[in-house]
Give the backbone structure.
Amino acid sequence: MEEFEEGEILLCTVDKVVGTTVFVKIEDNWEGTITTSEIAPGRIRNLRDYVVPGKKIVCKIISLKNGRIQLSLRRVKQNERKELLDKIEKENNYKAIIKTVIGKEEAEKIVKEITKEQSLTNFFEELRENPKILNKYFKKEDAEKIIKIIESKKEKPKEVKNIIKLSSKSSNGMKIVKEIIDNACKNSKCDVSYIAAGKYNLKIHGPDFKQIKSDINKVTEEIEQQAKKQNCEFELEKVKH
């Protein structure tokens, strides 16, 4: 059990439920147990509402004693669960890439070799910076194929747009409008383009959709607030998220 440690988050498969104890299978043929009190907070009316044989669950190791792995389901935080599932999804994708290039049997052998030294996720992250590490495990032509697949799967930057109408009846209205937009955008990555008749396109690119959506909304709200102070006409005409 040296490969395990208390506090570690694991993906387990429910094997059986005996009385108030849940037996689960862990990778590499290990077995763990979960008591009823560690399934969920509060009173549990029906244990099978949470665990049934064959179901995959994310657990936390709470004890390693006398060759037994004691686990908890309720102590796993939402972010810990998501982090583990994201990691597993990534590793499955990496395994699929290797399998596509060299076949299932050979892929399993090489994955075992790689994971003796580091996780598959770390290997592929390092690969993005140093493609030559492939040469240790793959033939040149196979390494080139893997690199091409990874390049084709690179996530494209996301984009959000807001189209607004902003105008002023003041004698120096154009200057006021320009200052409002410039001030609202100066601390952001927002690109602004003029469309026609007081209509403007606000646009932000980035890898994190949630973040750039928040950023463009802040810019738009700032423009609206400044427009009110300057007695300008403002309208959010279209949102493209």
Observations:
- The chain has three domains: 9-76, 80-152, 158-240.
- Residues 158-240 form a domain with the Alpha-Beta Plaits fold (CATH 3.30.70.1130).
- The chain has a mean pLDDT of 91.
